[in-house]
Amino acid sequence: MVKVIALEEIFMVEYLDHKPSLQHFISLLTCLLVLVTTSCQNLLAPEGSTQITLEIDLTASENLKKPGSVTTITRVVVTVFTGEFGTASYKELVVKELSVTGRSAQGTISVPIGENRTFQASAYDANKFIQYQGISTVNITESTFAVNIGLGPVPPDRTTLSFDDQSKRFNWTKSLASDFAAYRMYRANSPGVTLSSALIGTIGAVDSTFYVDTERLSDGLYYYRVFVVDTEGLISIGSNEVLRIINN
Questions:
Q1: Do 169 and 226 share a domain, yes or no?
Q2: Nearest to 65 by CA among 236, 233, 237
Q3: Same structural domain for residues 184 and 144?
Q4: What does R_g of the chain's alpha carbons equal in angstroms?
Q5: Does 75 lie in the same domain as 119?
Q6: How many domains does the chain have?
Q7: What residues make up the domain containing 32?
Q8: What CATH number does the domain containing 86 carry?
Q9: Does 224 share its domain with 203?
Q10: How far apart are CA 61 and CA 231, in angstroms?
């Protein structure tokens, strides 16, 4: 109200000194519109927060080799955190589900003003699996109106590996990846099995969660780890490492 009165006073001075022109009316109307817009934004966001527009482009995902059942992203959820990841100060502030239209997702979110606000976007397919994810950390001020979050494909989850000394069989938990391609078993002669270690087996059926190493090995210690590969060639974090002792 104070700002509007001030504008009226300015306009009245102009009116007394000069006959008001069309330009005067346009200037006054523009000022009033700016005030109304700013006031509406302040009303939408709680005190100490600002209203932010989020828009996520999903077009890039069309180039990924997803199977037909997961080509459509049905939900995009944005979670805002504050603090440094892995510390006691890291906590969730806001969760917002965006509406998905075609190849983009849009929505608005009220975010507390402050530094190091981490925006994490997760895009879910029709089977409720996260297929794409992205993170952006920004400082939020009253003048922050938009945040861009780039999405990338998410590798499959890791499995848990075990070894049965009686059957000489390795077993692992089934992959939940909807775009599963294969399990890969690696072996090394020392701790720290990586993708550079010896690849000893590839299993292409998601329900086949076991492997028997039939190679005749000399006495010693052998370390194993299984990785999951999806249809884009993305590879999971390796499973836990399992030790096998050969003593012929």
A1: yes
A2: 233
A3: no
A4: 29
A5: yes
A6: 3
A7: 2-42
A8: 2.60.40
A9: yes
A10: 13
Q: pTM for this one?
A: 0.56
Residues 60, 15 share a domain:
no
Which of 153, 185, 203 represents a domain boundary (last residue)?
Answer: 153
Sheet containing strand 220-230, strands side by side: 198-203, 180-188, 220-230, 242-246
Per the structure block, which two tokens stand in for 227? Answer: 């990785």
Can you give the pLDDT of all 248 residues of the chain as single tens digits? 323 333 333 333 333 344 444 444 333 323 233 333 333 344 444 566 777 777 776 665 554 444 444 456 778 888 888 887 777 878 888 888 887 877 778 888 888 888 888 888 888 877 777 778 888 888 888 777 777 777 777 888 889 999 998 888 999 999 988 788 999 999 999 999 999 999 999 999 999 999 999 999 999 999 999 999 988 788 998 999 999 999 87
